[in-house]
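Much of our argument rests on the idea that a fold can be written as discrete symbols. The record that follows shows the chain in one-letter code together with its fold in token form.
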Amino acid sequence: MSHSLSRINTSAATLTKNRTEGSITPSSGMCVTCVDGCIGMCEIGKSAFRGHEVIYPQPFGVITTAAEKVYPVDYSHFNIMGTAVGAHGIEADSDKAIFPAVNLEVHFGHDKGIKFRYPFMIPGIGSTNIAKNNWEGLAIGTAIAGTGLTIGENVVGMDPESVIKNGHVVDTVDLKRRVKLFKDHHRDGWGAIIVQANVEDTRLGTLEYAIEKLGAHIVELKWGQGAKDIGGEVKITSLQKAQLLYQRGYVVLPNPMDEVVIKAFERGAFKEFERHSRVGMVTEEDFERRVDDLRKAGAKYIFLKTGAYRPADLARAVAFSSKYGIDLLTVDGAGGGTGMSPWRMMNEWGVPPVELHSLLYQYAKRLADKGKHIPALAVAGGFTFEDAIFKGLAMGAPFVKLVGMARAPIAAAMVGKTIGRAIADGQLPVYVERFGTTKDEIFVTAAHLRHELGEEEYDHIPTGALGLYTYYERLAQGLRQLMAGSRKFNVGLITRDDLASLTHEASDISGIQYIMDADKAEVDSILKC
């Protein structure tokens, strides 16, 4: 490991690099010899001529971004424990206890009325271009997989075609499209589309509109995320759109109504405006009132998403969710992100996933031990594959029911979309072409889906959706294999002792036994004979 936990002053995320790649001062990230005459390739140098633009990952709209920081403890510091004995959730018979028999279904909500085929979901992607441009694949792929997808913040406010009267939304194009894409491919009640709201969305009445006009029966309140501790940001390349968003009440920088700014933009002094959301001001009274209002408006299920804030804020999220009957609480650890979070903030702010999720377990258990209601919990923050999904579920068992992922599913959808374009253009790279030249040959799940959906529906499935569905299918099979090795044949049977800590520090933080202490009592019992 390097001397520093963070990389400073140079990153692909900010399109910067050091002049002397081999000789860097760890504390500052500067070249050991900073030479007069350097054009300024590093972040300091780029900031000297582009200023605040370099705060954010670039280029906006075609990338997702997450922190580079190496945390002292992460989920790789835990191993999954397998056993050669017995089976839970199925008969202990070698012909029956096979990994395809593992049940990954999750039922949650106050009446257990929400059902997912898999214990993972996309917990919220909103108004960024990367979300909008890949929504077709994300929505359809999620629907046919039978899991969850959350429409994130600011979608209504960012839509130039939204109709807003007296400060409240009465019609939309983008939000309506996003909900419809999921609903048109929703199968047998599996999975769900969730509509999320931040401060601006609440002022616009977005959730009430979604409930009444779009038939959305699951809504989510947003306190924040793991990537940043301020409101959401996007870049705007159109003066007219920047002015529209300013008039809708967003914080837009620089001021697009200022004549000096307008002239500077028109002559090319800068090419992008920043649109910022406001930070929320959480109080218990407001939270209670908002939950009550949403229930009166017709919401059947209410979720809450919070981020990597200090422990007291996590305690508030758990306590309020318990007290006011929230159906799902999602807790997002530091370092994640999909959009335009400030780069240094993304790396240096917040409680990392292992620490945050360990605290979440502790707080939930304290309330559960008092007989309090514990909502279904979801954890997020850098999860990508089945091993980490298992660990996330085990770390918070029995309270954590789902793992949230955003960057990885977006990546799968983007790759699927790109392959589709390459097929159409006859420009498949050799790496892909060795599997075939049609989507039926390239996507390994295609034959199954064609049979299951029928020819007509299958032919209308975009390759972005095939990419997401196929990625999910891989996660599901991999998770079943890990669970079968731990002899847990139902996802609800995973426990904390299915993990072992590889270091004492990981054990101290999480409460998961150090690997050399695991099974100690049982070992003593076996060996005393």
